[in-house]
């Protein structure tokens, strides 16, 4: 079955309430390809490797979390950007990208989907009084040590995480996928035993160690693989389309 590209974009925009969320990049249709869609390829980042894989898979739409045209980047279409855009346009493939709307969505969002993968029971937002907060707080069904939880994360995500071990067992967890290390202080204020995100900064170690809280950096890419898969599956079910998630390995 094929549907109009405009119909797919309208549904994705509305489902994610993309227009209501201020972001660092445009959300939605970033590159327009053929007008009809029957096959979606999804992935985390619109890298050249993912574009090449989408071409090989004969995709009509490439759906990603990390697209293009970020605030502050050089707007000139040269070098890497030129090669990526040229490949999409030459093969008539649309690029559909959602950043923060895909992080915060209560059904297909990266943070909710990561919680489901790790068996964390979601309690609510990291900062209930801050509508811009993308992180969440939740609990484990059974308390475990920080080392055991890190092993669990490694088993689920297929990547050895960076662990800063704190004090006591892990019962309450705060998390924000991707580059959310800056939220560690809010997580500490929320009373978590462990904070998990994708990346770490130098000062993250000190915040965790001096507050007795465990910290895990499990990889930006690794923690953000699940939202775009869930969104692609939703759109495929909604319109009876084909959907293929392609994971291009990234150690960061």
From TrEMBL:
Stored Pfam families: DUF34_NIF3
Residues making up the signal peptide according to the UniProt record: none
Return the GO cellular component terms, semicolon-separated. cytoplasm
- Write down the superkingdom of origin: Bacteria
What name does UniProt use for this protein? GTP cyclohydrolase 1 type 2 homolog
InterPro entries from the UniProt entry: DUF34/NIF3, DUF34/NIF3_sf
Alphabetic keyword roster:
Metal-binding
Question: Which NCBIfam families does this UniProt record tie to the protein?
Answer: YbgI_SA1388
Q: Which GO terms describe its molecular function?
A: metal ion binding
């Amino acid at each position: 079955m094929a549907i109009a590209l405009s119909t797919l974009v309208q549904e994705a925009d509305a489902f994610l309430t993309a227009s209501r969320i201020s972001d660092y990049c445009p959300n939605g249709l970033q590159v327009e390809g053929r007008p009809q869609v029957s096959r979606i390829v999804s992935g985390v980042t619109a890298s050249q490797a993912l574009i090449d894989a989408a071409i090989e898979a004969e995709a009509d739409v490439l759906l990603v979390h990390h697209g293009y045209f970020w605030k502050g980047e050089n707007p000139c279409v040269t070098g890497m950007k030129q090669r990526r855009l040229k490949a999409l346009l030459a093969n008539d493939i649309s690029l559909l990208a959602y950043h923060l709307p895909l992080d915060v969505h209560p059904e297909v969002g990266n943070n909710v989907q990561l919680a489901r993968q790790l068996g964390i029971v979601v309690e609510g937002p990291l900062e209930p009084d801050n509508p811009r907060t993308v992180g969440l707080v939740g609990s484990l069904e059974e308390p475990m040590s920080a080392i055991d939880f890190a092993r669990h994360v490694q088993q689920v995500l297929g990547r050895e995480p960076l662990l800063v071990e704190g004090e006591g067992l892990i019962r309450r967890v705060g998390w924000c996928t991707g580059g959310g290390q800056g939220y560690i202080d809010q997580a500490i204020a929320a009373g978590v035993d462990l904070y998990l995100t994708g990346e770490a900064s130098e000062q993250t170690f000190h915040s965790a160690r001096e507050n007795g809280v465990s910290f895990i950096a499990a990889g930006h890419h690794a923690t953000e693989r699940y939202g775009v898969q869930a969104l692609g599956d939703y759109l495929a079910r909604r319109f009876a389309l084909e959907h293929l998630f392609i994971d291009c390995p990234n150690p960061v």
